[in-house]
Amino acid sequence: MAASELRQEDACRTRAVLDLVGDKWSLLVVRYLSQGPHRFTELKREIDGISQRMLTVTLRALERDGILTRTVHNVMPPHVSYELTPMGRTLREAALPLLEWSVTNLAHIDAARAEYDARTSPA
Amino acid sequence: MAASELRQEDACRTRAVLDLVGDKWSLLVVRYLSQGPHRFTELKREIDGISQRMLTVTLRALERDGILTRTVHNVMPPHVSYELTPMGRTLREAALPLLEWSVTNLAHIDAARAEYDARTSPA
DNA sequence: CTGAATCCTGTATGATACTG
DNA sequence: CAGTATCATACAGGATTCAG
Q1: What is the mean pLDDT of residues B34-44?
Q2: CATH of the domain at A78
Q3: What does pTM read for this prediction?
Q4: Is A54 within 8 Å of chain B by CB?
Q5: Which structural domain range is residue A31 located in?
């Protein structure tokens, strides 16, 4: 489908994407897993500021949606690895333009904010 | 920048995008404005389920970030029109792949959820 | 190590009424 | 018409504790 062909009836899809990856951590998890399989503690360490609880919740949701797989290795000590599914990898690809946009425009946005704030609350 | 060149140090950017458009309504507003300038009431009517308050809050945030412009026409009755800035239009373009991904994979996700639920809560 | 369970709080969001 | 102000609420998210 060409980008320009998205139509009105896709509005609900917008909500669907946001419900999926619009939370605070999902895209970050997908980001790190795109570099290869990771273990729980690795993700916990790499994703700055995430709590155990939110990592668990986020991983469960993404597993349920078929974005990643959870594999338990029955060894001692216990071992669980998470890995993107093929669909998870396509999600990562689809999210990249937005991330690139962010990298490109963040400075511009900061400038816009500063100007707006100066304009609305002068002195 | 090539998609494959995004690196670890861009992690913070992921948060920046989500802070910008990861809320419930921003992308929907951008969506409708990509079809041309709209007035407050038009947006209110077209975006299903949004409250006056959230439309106001969302529009203000997007205006502050330089995504759209707010133009007050001094006529009677009052008249305010909202329009995407050039940066706003590039944001819309950057978000399109994710929306297309959603359209393509939503059925797949529903299936994954159903299977997951069946697997975890059997009967 | 990898979680699950519980409790607690802030923020986002919504409903309603009022105003230039 | 296009908001603002106020109040109410739900859910995300954090801290802590417990368990296989």
Answers
A1: 95
A2: 1.10.10.10
A3: 0.87
A4: no
A5: 7-120
